[in-house]
Amino acid sequence: MKSQKAMALLLLLALTGGFAGIWKLQHSIDKERAALSEERDDVLLRSGKLMKLMSLEYAPLMADFYWTRVVQFYGNKHVRGNANMELLWPLLDITTTLDPNLLIAYRFGGMFLSQRAPSGAGRPDLAVQLIQRGIQANPDYWRFYEDLGFVYYFDLKDYQKASEAYLEGSKKPGAQMWMKVMAAKIAAEGESFSTSVFLWKDIYETTTDPTIKKNAELHLQLLKAKEDCRQLDALADEYEKRFGRRPTRMSEMVQAGLLRAIPGDPLGFAYIFGENGKAELNLDSPLLEQQLILEHFK
User: Fold this and answer.
1) Backbone dihedral region of 281: left (phi > 0), alpha (psi from -120 to 50 degrees) or beta?
2) Tell me: the pLDDT tens digits for 205-226?
3) d(CA 117, CA 123)
């Protein structure tokens, strides 16, 4: 009996080890299949000219298909918080190669590429390349110059090239008068609160893409918070002149008559003074997390 039990135990252990080995083997096979699938996709993605040659008159239809993949790819990366967007440029490259007149691919593709992680790929250089390709294929579409100026202004901080882009775009058919105004304003002032708000507001009001609209809204909220804190710091400076010390609470500013009430950020959370005596977002405000994320990837 003992020998039978021992044999059964050994058999059970062997089966358990066998199942574990099979599971590891299957897991390894699945990983290899996934890697091969990604490699095949990558090879296909980098064959834009070949794809156009093969597609013939169906190239615009194929471009729509690949643009859908761009949106899905970006959306999945954005939802997962995965900043690795190495395939975004190849997808956009093949899309615009198949259909050079697919305006949406240049406009929103440029936005996806230029934005810092986690909102985008953090490749403003590729965004410039994509938009310039769009201008070459669609030279009279003035919005591309707006997009180009936007990337130069916000992401590359090249205010001269930003001003030149807005000025050149202002000469195109149907261009809005503010394009010329932006060219002059950026040339004179560089980066400013009013200019930044205007440009993000235009993106917010003109886009039909919910992800870009949400992103623009977030930037507008953070810009407002930044400007509010700047003004609160100026009032805190006045408080220090009067009382010989920095205020530690917003209520002290109210008591001194420098504020009518304790101000709140765009989401309604009260501003606070940090340990350095500077105004900042409330620890409970959702905007603080977004601000820290954007600053982390600068």
Assistant:
1) beta
2) 998 888 889 999 999 999 999 9
3) 9
